[in-house]
Amino acid sequence: MVSDQSAPNLMINELLCFIIDKMNVLPPNTIIQLFLSKYNELEVETSKKVLFDNLPSEISVRLQKRQGDKKALRNLEDIIKVVQEFSYSLPTYAAKNLNNLPPITFDNIDVSMLLDEICKTNEKVRFLQDCVTKQQSTKNSLIKTHETH
């Protein structure tokens, strides 16, 4: 069940919570397949409406009503597109019942995306190490200068 209860800046919606959280780990086609097997058309459409209704006013995206055999698929594609383009300004979505989230197995994970994230994290760690080294050097210089006076 996908719910649309809300609190200030926090929305309860399992589908949106999962999609936003997993966009950096799973490719869009995997997310779509997971949700097509777990949620029905109405739940997907309800989540899409919640997302579009809660976009900040400066974002103008038209809510396109999907019809036909692939309605849920197209609605999920619309959700993913909005999340990819505007993730920085979306409300926070939470899951009320974690059992409503689709299970993820190792087969679902895009290893190349994980490798990219690991590389980015390594770059950040190297940058932080450089900052600490420079800071330590500056501290040592100040201590020596203070000791000589």
Strand content: 5-15%
Uncertain residue ranges: none
Quaternary structure:
single chain
Strand tally is 3
CA-based gyration radius? 22 Å
Largest sheet: 3 strands, mixed
H and E string: EEHHHHEH
Distance between the termini: 72 Å
The overall pLDDT, averaged over residues, is 83
Task: Tell me, briefly, the overall form.
Answer: elongated
Provide the structure class.
Answer: mainly alpha
* Strand order across the largest sheet: 1-2-3
Number of helices: 5
What percentage of residues falls in helices of 4 or more residues?
55-70%
How many separate structural domains?
2
Characteristic terms for this protein:
mainly alpha, 2 domains, three-stranded mixed sheet, 58% helix
Can you describe this structure?
By secondary structure, this protein is mostly helical. A 3-stranded mixed beta sheet has the order 1-2-3. It folds into 2 domains: 6-108, no CATH class; 110-149. Helix 2 (28-38) crosses helix 4 and helix 3 packs parallel to helix 4. It has helices at 14-22, 28-38, 41-53, 71-86, 111-148, and strands at residues 6-7, 10-12, 92-94. The protein contains 5 helices and 3 strands.
